[in-house]
Amino acid sequence: MSMTIAAATARISRQLPEAELSLDTALLASTRLMESMLMARQVDGVEVFTGQRALMRLVRTQRSLIESQNDMIRVHRELLQVGREVKAIGDERGTCPTTAVTSTEPTRALA
After folding, report:
1. How confident is the model at residue 108 (pLDDT cuts 50, 70, 90)?
2. Residue 88 pLDDT > 50
3. Tens of pLDDT, residues 22-43
4. Which domain holds residue 81?
C-alpha cells in the first residue's frame, strides 16, 4: 500500500499527540494507584511497611514512564526535522518540544 507524503504527515500529526498523551495517562493512573496503595497501608491492623516492594516497583515503573516521555519528545523533534527535510511541514516554531531532560539526576531548585 502506497501512501503520499501528505497522507503520512496527516496520520503522524494525528497519532503523535495521542502517543504523547498516553504516556501522561499511564503516569497519572500509576500515581492514583500509588495513592491507593499508601492509603491502604494506613488501615488499622496493616503493618507500616506492607507492600513496600510493590511500591518500589511502581516507582521504577513511573521512572520508566518519565524516561519514555523524554524519548517521545526526542521522537517528536526528529519527526519535525524529517518533516522539514521532505518539505511536508512548514517551519512553525513553538509548536513542538525543544528540549528533553538529558539527566536522570534530580534537579534542585535554585535559592
Report:
1. very low
2. yes
3. 999 999 999 999 999 999 999 9
4. 5-85
Flag whether 92 is in a domain: no
64: left (phi over 0), alpha (psi -120 to 50) or beta: alpha
Domain-located, residue 109 = no
Does any domain span residue 75? yes
CA distances from 87 to 18, 81, 95 (A): 23, 10, 17
Pair 51, 37: CB distance under 8 Å: yes
List the grid coordinates of 19.
502517543
pTM of the model: 0.75
Number of domains in the chain: 1
- Secondary structure of the chain in the HEC alphabet? CCCCHHHHHHHHHHHHHHHHHHHHHHHHHHHHHHHHHHHHCCCCCCCCCCCHHHHHHHHHHHHHHHHHHHHHHHHHHHHHHHHHHCCCCCCCCCCCCCCCCCCCCCCCCCC
81 in any annotated domain: yes
